[in-house]
Amino acid sequence: MSVLEKPEAVRGRGLSGGPAAVRSRGLSGGPVAVRGRGLSLRPRPLAVTLLLTLLAAGTGALALTRDGLVPPAEVLGALFGAGSERAAFVVLELRLPRVALGLTVGAALGAAGALFQQLSRNPLGSPDIVGFNSGAATGALLVLLHGDPAYVASGAAGGGLATAVIVQLLARRGSFRANRLILAGIAVGSLLASVNAYLLTRAALDHAQSAQLWLIGSLGSAERHQVMPALLGLGALLLAALPAVRRLDLLEMGDEAAGGLGVDAARTRVFVLLIAVGLSAVAVSAAGPIVFVALCAPQLARRIGRGTGTGLLPAAAMGALLLSASDLVAISLPTAGPLPVGVVTGALGGVYLVWLLGRGRRR
């Protein structure tokens, strides 16, 4: 149980109006973390985030030099503008956009999964499970098949937002119930999956083939102009999420107790949901609805860091590592053609779910 669930660990505002603080203590009685209006001071999650970020960068570096076509020295030279034209073309035009976009999309998926799981209080609460990725994919497919591909990001954001509104309306009957949110999301996601299949059947053959590859989730068509918008969207949404995460964690105590600390439960949930949908839209518009990264990344990061709460930054770093490593596997396998990264993440997610089921049975 998180320390935020213990009422005696919370000190609210006194008559002097001082800021509320939450202090947790370890088994030895020493302070572990202090929270106030500023940022949380937790060395272990910060260390885990840094470690996972370095590992993700390492997998990206391996992807740049994966087949020996460009030696590591020439890769470094190309990155710093001192390499040959051939090395610069291979590294900067062909490989670096894919690596950078994979890291960005993975971080967006990991952060979105952490927010959804904390919001629903369920380890299965991820955007690909509860239908938000399917909604974003529907909006993006409508643009891909019947509009200007330059507006794919807008279509994904609109589809994800419309799905979020529908799921919220279906899930909200009286007070908030996390299980209703999951069930409503699964139902809406199943309907939207059928809509997406219908759209593919009505499209021209060449459009349907490219759209089907996109629906699996692929980084093969990554280009330089896609990286900066995705990176800016990720950065803006993470900055907006950081203050909301502290309020979201306080909701573990219950709406009434959190309200006593000045947290508006309904407003916090809506705001966090919008941020999570935005992160999902960033990922889907850039690489398609890649599955299972948002499901696995927050749980794995939490187990490594042994932390509680949302764990937004560790989950984002873990998502970047998972997707970067999965893409490295996808481009390294001796297949007849390029393998979409969604195939590898799907296999990874299946192994994770089997492990989760086995662990639950042992418990």
Compact overview of the structure:
By secondary structure, the chain is mainly alpha-helical. About 70% of the residues lie in helices and about 5% in strands. It contains 13 helices and three strands.
Please characterize this protein's 3D structure.
This protein has 363 residues and is mainly alpha-helical. The protein is 69% helix and 3% strand. It has 13 helices and 3 strands, in the order βββααααααααααααα. It has helices at 43-64, 72-79, 85-120, 132-146, 152-171, 178-201, 205-216, 224-250, 255-260, 265-287, 293-305, 312-332, 341-362, and strands at 10-11, 21-25, 31-35. A 3-stranded antiparallel β-sheet has the order 1-2-3, with no helix packed on it. Strand 2 and strand 3 form a beta hairpin. Helix 3 (85-120) crosses helix 11 (293-305). The longest helix is centred in the first third of the chain and has 36 residues, at 85-120. It is globular, with a radius of gyration of 21 Å. The two termini are 16 Å apart.
Q: Would you identify the regions where 5 or more consecutive residues have pLDDT less than 50?
A: 1-41
Q: Give the DSSP E fraction (strand runs of 2 or more residues).
A: under 5%
Task: Assign the structural class, choosing from mainly alpha, mainly beta, alpha/beta, alpha+beta, or little secondary structure.
Answer: mainly alpha
Radius of gyration: 21 Å
Placed side by side, the strands forming the largest sheet appear as 1-2-3
Taken from the alpha-carbon principal axes, the silhouette is: globular
The secondary-structure element order is: EEEHHHHHHHHHHHHH
What is the CA–CA distance across the termini? 16 Å
Q: Kindly state the mean pLDDT as a whole number?
A: 79
Helix content: 55-70%
Number of strands: 3
Number of alpha- plus pi-helical segments: 13
User: The biggest beta sheet, please?
Assistant: 3 strands, antiparallel
